[in-house]
């Protein structure tokens, strides 16, 4: 009799299941627009030239210390990571109130931050403190905070499917209505999955309410440099909030902008009120890390730290990052142009207005299903595509597939009356949280009258 | 208070770091030229530094010059080849459990992470129907971070079983068995497969068989810790005997492994958790649940170190070379233990020092008490852990005299 005899099979992760299905597909023109990793125009992963260079330097370094890293991580990596997020001239850093924890990727950074907040934020035991994540958001946000012990995780309005942009009114309303001291997870730039970021003016509005209502700012920054190609531009929101005096956390990932996906390089930047506060916070975080992975892996941190701390290497890295960002921008331009040239119904400006690796195409579940089943183009049920999956060789096929999906499969949510409209919005908002199968079921339950064109909502 | 003071009164004052951190701090401030730090976790060479095995360095160079591009995100469960080798190294290629494909293997970022994953699996999925939440039994003494790991995973009921007899300076099996016999059914028992930390003690095969018997009879669940495989006896198989024995008896078990010490890969955080199950049909569900837990802790483990280990363990020539290097490490540690014992005997230091050579591996429970340890650091600039544990490899020809003399003084000075 096994003691594990009653263990159920965990539900598969949508994005990995997609990749698994893609791998099994034998169609010659198949394309994977699912997973969030950079690909070259040959559809290959890219080892950044600066990374290759630095790896060799490290291997040949005879004086390298081979001990366990300190629990909080490699010191040079820690200071460099904070600097890259907050900027060289950061007053907060000069004031000695910025520190952080090296973590296993962005996920590790989020987890340590979440565990700390649950234990120590605003009094002890915050299991009931509400944590707000955007609707939609990266599918893991919800579970990371839940597993860290938070019981009340709520969505905040973000994506407006009707106008295919930011639902600012809804967002600001949620901020006004959230209980004081709620935690809000904000995407620093290149929002995943919508690719839609607030403008600077909009960030200012968000900041004003959050300050007034004592809401806690937890930035998720996985794409710095990747969004616009410019590190400072991509960090604008973070730096603005810091300059407004917020205490905040930033979960940084170097997976994408260094192409170091498998070395798990992440960092949780902590901006505290003062240095004393900072040291107490870090001491508690150290205890949390001690019971999670104890000493973080050194390889990735060394690569990042060497690169960030050496002016020539730093310049080379910035140019490598720009190469990636530029390719994405090019694909965005070309996809929009091709769809317009094909006369695909609807407006496609959002493709070039959105930013970062992902684009929320606006394709509905039925159209997505069509893309996968008939065209062997794999994308998330939410309509999210990874722009890096587009190449000069497959972009025509993809554009044509989207065109076919839209013109042939225009059964979608009817928004004739208020009930349907709110159901439709509710469904779109649930996209980040529920599995594709549930959504497809819900979609078919909505009343479908006559066909309407893609543009009227 | 506004956002500015979100963390004003939230973070309690904690004592300035752990005992270990305080010790390291004191050592760094110490200006005495004879100072010796014997409280580290890593293996130190005769020159007093941690080092990378020559073989490991070679392989790293090869891997960095490899033109084939790296894949993207690795699987949450880790590098396949590494998992396969890590499992084989623990259970043996011909183990029934391996052959019958009922072993779950997960690469983890280091040893602590492996224990944490095991703890999470137990908390979520062990004896699910009975809503199990403990107790977990740890040896007395044990690594002081262990309790915290289980608690972080949500298991609050942590108890001790008798292990080290301070008077006899050895394991007291009778009391150990007694405690296990009294433990409630379904308790989890954490056992060091060999070279226990911090005592360095080890059980004989006969003693292990007796323990396994009680575990089976009382329906307890064994969770083995195997950090320094091969570093105890210089023999891969001998260090892992109890794990193989329990598996061969058809038991289900967890085993947390580390490859840091025996590969000198401390910075690389290369760990592994294996779970032996009774049936093959359980593998897939358990794997999926482990995957889910991992994705919320660290998402994926780091690849570099695991690839090195997999390369060594998978290649017969590399394996031979690696075993040679490890053997040299082990022999040096054994030699230091013998010299230490002999020198203390010659000085006429009170007490019996046989336990120094009866224990194995890197760590050694000297038997010194808190006061004596304090004396050593404050008056003699020799730093041990507060419980009297010292790292044998940190002793070398330059500091041996001072250390021996200091221990002698600690035991003979009456203050």
TrEMBL record, chain A:
<dbReference type="InterPro" id="IPR015422">
    <property type="entry name" value="PyrdxlP-dep_Trfase_small"/>
</dbReference>
<dbReference type="InterPro" id="IPR004838">
    <property type="entry name" value="NHTrfase_class1_PyrdxlP-BS"/>
</dbReference>
<keyword id="KW-0032">Aminotransferase</keyword>
<keyword id="KW-0808">Transferase</keyword>
<dbReference type="InterPro" id="IPR015424">
    <property type="entry name" value="PyrdxlP-dep_Trfase"/>
</dbReference>
<dbReference type="InterPro" id="IPR004839">
    <property type="entry name" value="Aminotransferase_I/II_large"/>
</dbReference>
<keyword id="KW-0663">Pyridoxal phosphate</keyword>
<comment type="similarity">
    <text>Belongs to the class-I pyridoxal-phosphate-dependent aminotransferase family.</text>
</comment>
<dbReference type="GO" id="GO:0006532">
    <property type="term" value="P:aspartate biosynthetic process"/>
</dbReference>
<dbReference type="InterPro" id="IPR000796">
    <property type="entry name" value="Asp_trans"/>
</dbReference>
<comment type="subunit">
    <text>Homodimer.</text>
</comment>
<dbReference type="GO" id="GO:0030170">
    <property type="term" value="F:pyridoxal phosphate binding"/>
</dbReference>
<dbReference type="InterPro" id="IPR015421">
    <property type="entry name" value="PyrdxlP-dep_Trfase_major"/>
</dbReference>
<dbReference type="GO" id="GO:0120554">
    <property type="term" value="F:2-aminobutanoate transaminase activity"/>
</dbReference>
<feature type="domain" description="Aminotransferase class I/classII large">
    <location>
        <begin position="29"/>
        <end position="402"/>
    </location>
</feature>
<dbReference type="GO" id="GO:0005829">
    <property type="term" value="C:cytosol"/>
</dbReference>
<keyword id="KW-0028">Amino-acid biosynthesis</keyword>
<protein>
    <recommendedName>
        <fullName>Aspartate aminotransferase</fullName>
        <ecNumber>2.6.1.1</ecNumber>
    </recommendedName>
</protein>
<dbReference type="Pfam" id="PF00155">
    <property type="entry name" value="Aminotran_1_2"/>
</dbReference>
<dbReference type="GO" id="GO:0004069">
    <property type="term" value="F:L-aspartate:2-oxoglutarate aminotransferase activity"/>
</dbReference>
<keyword id="KW-0963">Cytoplasm</keyword>
<dbReference type="GO" id="GO:0047801">
    <property type="term" value="F:L-cysteine transaminase activity"/>
</dbReference>
UniProtKB/TrEMBL annotation, chain B:
<keyword id="KW-0663">Pyridoxal phosphate</keyword>
<dbReference type="GO" id="GO:0030170">
    <property type="term" value="F:pyridoxal phosphate binding"/>
</dbReference>
<dbReference type="GO" id="GO:0004069">
    <property type="term" value="F:L-aspartate:2-oxoglutarate aminotransferase activity"/>
</dbReference>
<dbReference type="InterPro" id="IPR015421">
    <property type="entry name" value="PyrdxlP-dep_Trfase_major"/>
</dbReference>
<feature type="domain" description="Aminotransferase class I/classII large">
    <location>
        <begin position="57"/>
        <end position="407"/>
    </location>
</feature>
<dbReference type="InterPro" id="IPR015424">
    <property type="entry name" value="PyrdxlP-dep_Trfase"/>
</dbReference>
<keyword id="KW-0032">Aminotransferase</keyword>
<dbReference type="GO" id="GO:0005829">
    <property type="term" value="C:cytosol"/>
</dbReference>
<comment type="subunit">
    <text>Homodimer.</text>
</comment>
<dbReference type="GO" id="GO:0006532">
    <property type="term" value="P:aspartate biosynthetic process"/>
</dbReference>
<dbReference type="InterPro" id="IPR000796">
    <property type="entry name" value="Asp_trans"/>
</dbReference>
<comment type="similarity">
    <text>Belongs to the class-I pyridoxal-phosphate-dependent aminotransferase family.</text>
</comment>
<dbReference type="InterPro" id="IPR015422">
    <property type="entry name" value="PyrdxlP-dep_Trfase_small"/>
</dbReference>
<dbReference type="Pfam" id="PF00155">
    <property type="entry name" value="Aminotran_1_2"/>
</dbReference>
<protein>
    <recommendedName>
        <fullName>aspartate transaminase</fullName>
        <ecNumber>2.6.1.1</ecNumber>
    </recommendedName>
</protein>
<dbReference type="InterPro" id="IPR004839">
    <property type="entry name" value="Aminotransferase_I/II_large"/>
</dbReference>
<keyword id="KW-0808">Transferase</keyword>
């Amino acid at each position: 009799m096994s003691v594990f005899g009653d263990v159920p099979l965990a539900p598969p992760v949508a994005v990995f299941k997609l990749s698994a299905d893609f791998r099994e597909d034998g169609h010659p023109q198949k394309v994977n627009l699912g997973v969030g990793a950079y690909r070259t125009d040959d559809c290959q992963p890219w080892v950044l030239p600066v990374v290759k260079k630095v790896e060799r330097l490290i291997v040949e370094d005879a004086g390298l210390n081979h001990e366990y890293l300190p629990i909080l991580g490699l010191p040079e990596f820690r200071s460099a990571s904070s600097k890259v997020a907050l900027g060289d001239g950061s007053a907060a850093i000069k004031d000695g109130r910025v520190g952080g924890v090296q973590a296993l990727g962005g996920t590790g950074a989020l987890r340590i931050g979440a565990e700390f907040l649950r234990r120590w934020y605003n009094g002890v035991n915050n299991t009931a403190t509400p944590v707000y994540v955007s609707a939609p958001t990266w599918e893991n946000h919800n579970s990371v905070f839940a597993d860290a012990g938070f019981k009340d995780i709520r969505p905040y309005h973000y994506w407006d499917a009707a106008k295919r942009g930011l639902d600012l009114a809804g967002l600001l309303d949620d901020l006004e209505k959230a209980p004081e001291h709620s935690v809000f997870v904000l995407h620093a730039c290149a929002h995943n999955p919508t690719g839609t970021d607030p403008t600077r003016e909009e960030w200012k509005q968000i900041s004003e309410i959050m300050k007034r209502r004592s809401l806690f700012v937890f930035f998720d920054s996985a794409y710095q440099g990747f969004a616009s190609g410019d590190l400072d531009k991509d960090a604008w929101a973070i730096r603005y909030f810091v300059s407004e005096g917020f205490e905040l956390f930033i979960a940084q990932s170097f997976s994408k902008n260094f192409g170091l996906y498998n070395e798990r390089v992440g960092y949780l930047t902590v901006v505290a009120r003062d240095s004393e506060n900072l040291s107490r916070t870090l001491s508690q975080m150290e205890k949390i890390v001690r019971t999670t992975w104890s000493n973080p892996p050194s390889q990735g941190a060394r690569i990042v730290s060497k690169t960030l701390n050496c002016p020539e290497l730093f310049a080379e890295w910035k140019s490598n990052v720009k190469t990636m960002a530029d390719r994405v921008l090019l694909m965005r331009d070309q996809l929009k142009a091709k769809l317009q040239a094909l006369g695909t119904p609807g407006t496609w400006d959002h493709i070039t207005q959105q930013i970062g690796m992902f684009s929320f195409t606006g394709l509905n579940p039925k159209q997505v299903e069509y893309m996968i089943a008939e065209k062997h183009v794999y994308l998330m049920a939410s309509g999210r595509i990874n722009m890096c999956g587009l190449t000069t060789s497959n972009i025509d096929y993809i554009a044509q597939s989207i065109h076919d999906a839209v013109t042939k499969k225009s059964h979608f949510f009817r928004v004739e009356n208020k009930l349907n409209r709110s159901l439709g919005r509710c469904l779109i908002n649930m996209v980040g949280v529920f599995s594709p199968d549930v959504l497809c079921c819900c979609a078919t339950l909505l009343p479908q009258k006559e066909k309407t064109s893609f543009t009227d909502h | 208070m506004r956002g500015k003071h979100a963390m004003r009164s939230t973070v309690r004052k904690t004592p300035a770091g752990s005992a270990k951190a305080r010790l390291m701090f004191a050592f760094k401030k110490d200006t005495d030229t004879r100072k010796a730090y014997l409280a580290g976790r890593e293996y130190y060479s005769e020159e007093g530094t941690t080092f990378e095995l020559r073989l490991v360095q070679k392989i790293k160079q090869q891997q960095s010059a490899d033109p084939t591009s790296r894949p993207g995100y690795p699987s949450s469960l880790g590098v396949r080849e590494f998992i396969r080798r890590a499992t084989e190294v623990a259970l043996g290629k011909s183990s029934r459990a391996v052959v019958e494909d009922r072993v779950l293997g997960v690469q983890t970022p280091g040893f602590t992470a492996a224990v944490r994953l095991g703890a999470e699996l137990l908390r979520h999925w062990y004896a699910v129907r009975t809503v199990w939440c403990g107790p977990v039994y740890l040896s007395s003494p044990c690594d002081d971070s262990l309790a915290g790991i289980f608690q972080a995973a949500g298991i609050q009921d942590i108890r001790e079983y008798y292990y080290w007899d301070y008077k006899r300076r050895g394991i007291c099996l009778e009391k150990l068995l007694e405690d296990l016999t009294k433990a409630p059914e379904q308790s989890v028992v954490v056992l060091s497969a060999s070279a226990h930390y911090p005592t360095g003690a080890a059980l004989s095969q006969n003693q292990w068989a007796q323990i396994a018997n009680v575990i089976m009879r009382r329906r307890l669940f064994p969770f083995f810790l195997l950090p320094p495989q091969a570093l105890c006896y210089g023999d891969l198989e001998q260090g892992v005997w109890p794990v193989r024995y329990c598996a061969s008896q058809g038991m289900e078990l967890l085993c947390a492994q580390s490859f840091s010490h025996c590969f000198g890969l401390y910075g690389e955080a290369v760990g592994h958790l294996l779970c032996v199950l009774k049936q093959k049909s359980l593998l897939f569900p358990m794997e999926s649940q482990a995957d889910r837990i991992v994705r919320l802790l660290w998402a994926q483990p780091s690849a570099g170190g695991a690839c090195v280990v997999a390369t060594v363990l998978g290649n017969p020539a590399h394996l031979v070379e690696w075993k040679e290097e490890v053997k040299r490490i082990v022999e040096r540690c054994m030699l230091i233990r013998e010299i230490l014992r002999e020198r203390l005997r010659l000085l006429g230091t009170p007490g019996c020092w046989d336990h120094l050579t009866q224990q194995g591996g890197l760590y050694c429970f000297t038997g010194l008490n808190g006061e004596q340890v304090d004396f050593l650091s404050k008056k003699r600039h020799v730093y041990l852990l507060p419980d009297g544990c010292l790292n044998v490899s940190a002793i070398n020809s330059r500091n041996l005299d001072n250390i021996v003399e200091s221990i002698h003084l600690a035991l003979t000075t009456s203050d």
